[in-house]
């Protein structure tokens, strides 16, 4: 039995695809995402971002952003996605915070 999948979100325009190495794709192709889970429910995006911008990491405020996820009731569910400029910054986050307590909570 064959399964034919079509992507409903795929563009149907006849515009040619952009080259992979175009200037507008350069930053995005190098950017990385780091998933934080098990965070205390009282942590905010601002708190986590300030943590990453301060010692010991001192990540760039220009290239670091945080997205916290909430449940259906609107409350933070302890999961955040951090966007950083490159793989080196992502690895520094992993080394410094993987398995560590944040905000004195377990």
From TrEMBL:
Q: Which UniProt keywords apply?
A: RNA-binding
**Region feature Disordered, mapped onto this chain:** 1-27
Q: InterPro entries given for it? A: Nucleotide-bd_a/b_plait_sf, RBD_domain_sf, RRM_dom
Q: Is RNA-binding set as a keyword in this record?
A: yes
Q: Which GO terms describe its molecular function?
A: RNA binding
**What residues does the RRM domain cover?**
32-106
Keyword Ligase listed? The answer is no
Q: Which SUPFAM superfamilies match?
A: RNA-binding domain, RBD
| Name of this chain's protein | RRM domain-containing protein
In its UniProt entry, the species of origin is given as Kwoniella pini CBS 10737
At the highest ranks, the source species' classification is:
Eukaryota, Fungi, Dikarya, Basidiomycota, Agaricomycotina
């Amino acid at each position: 039995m064959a399964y034919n999948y079509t992507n409903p979100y795929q563009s149907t325009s006849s515009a040619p695809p952009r080259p992979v190495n175009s200037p507008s794709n350069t930053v995005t192709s190098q950017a990385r995402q780091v998933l934080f889970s098990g965070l205390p429910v009282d942590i905010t995006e601002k708190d986590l971002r300030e943590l990453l911008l301060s010692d010991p990491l001192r990540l760039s405020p220009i290239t670091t952003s945080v997205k916290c996820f909430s449940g259906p009731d609107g409350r933070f569910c302890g999961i955040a996605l951090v966007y950083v400029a490159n793989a080196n910054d992502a690895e520094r986050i992993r080394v410094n915070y993987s398995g560590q307590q944040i905000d004195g909570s377990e």
